[in-house]
């Protein structure tokens, strides 16, 4: 196998290892942040390398004195922020009289800072080297390559580029000390003309300087988990049945490269929405507290999904209130009263009015009604005003209307009728004569027209003669005169009653007779309607058992008034 083929195989193997490290995490990585705040998980480095060997092959003492340019490729995987493992390869094929390929692995240590990273590594592996032959470089292709151990110790500095979300960086320098040991075997003759290959052993130390491009993959600190919070908004501070409730979910730490999926559920019924905003119709909900749950997902891995929950309270509609008044509040029987109801719904629900009363009749279906009191007995009527809203909630209030008793009729006064004089017949001073006919007819007619009335007849006499003389005889005479006068007065009243009862057919029980002190020989008649009163002050009832009527000796003639 030729030297060129060997070099190709080595570089291919190293490239496969480095690419495998990057690909292992590339599919699951988000864009890394700045190196100092969140160091990368994998670093791939490729760049220019300078190799200066210093040493010789013993015992021929053929020196390595090349300045060899080449390439360096490495891949590092970090277990945490500071420590990782590295595999690398270096190819220096074009030295003056040699070629060196190194393949090594080992720990790497770093100190990440903002935009800069210092690192150090210690690697061990194998070197694929051919020996120096400065006498005849033309025979280089015929000189044998040998495998031997190699050690690499060194470090460097990286600069994090701000482009492409800190995906790339520059390896400002990598300075390593490389040592390798090779056993080239015995001296060998070259089949063609030229200097023979001189065998021997080589222990070579070299300075290896590299610089180039760095690619970051992943990061040590995982992305923050998705967080989700949801809240309820309503058109008013208090939610009543029928109000539309809006639930809004707010997700943080979402990957802008992914499309989140939203879903909702809850004990308030189905919540259909595929966005972070959902609406809930509370029309069919009873009063109570309800829970709503939201879910957001941008993947199936932990941290790529989150839940939220919130609650809202539906408050029952408050019942209406009503006040009730009547105007006027006091009426006479038969007079109407206007009843006014003032209803109010705290949530402005439509109201329906109705009325009832303990007496009378009331009509109305709006905020006013009319109470009719026709035929209602005096007393208090209680009126009830009712309202009901469209949710069936009711309220009632009462007022009262006083129906007054009608005023009592004006007091009926006794009516004085005509008076009969008894001065014409000196011999019979108590006899009712024909001259009294007209007066007695009027009295009878008035009594007949008011059958519930009564008559009062007061008989009077002129004053008794004064006492003349002294002594018992004079006193007895005076007393007899007084009794005579009183008796005549009683006879006058009794005789008039007798005529009214006998000739006019009046009921005797409706006629009362008295004696009075008018000071004239007369009989005065008073008509006493029902309910009227007759003042008997100064009058003396006549004992009709003791005073008999005086019969008339001639029929009473009828006279016509002219």
From TrEMBL:
Residues 337-349 have a biased composition (Polar residues). SUPFAM superfamilies: PKD domain. The keyword Signal applies. Keywords: Signal. Residues 1-28 form the signal peptide. The keyword Signal applies. Residues 325-349 are annotated as: Disordered. This is Uncharacterized protein. The lineage of its organism: Bacteria, Pseudomonadati, Acidobacteriota, Terriglobia, Terriglobales.
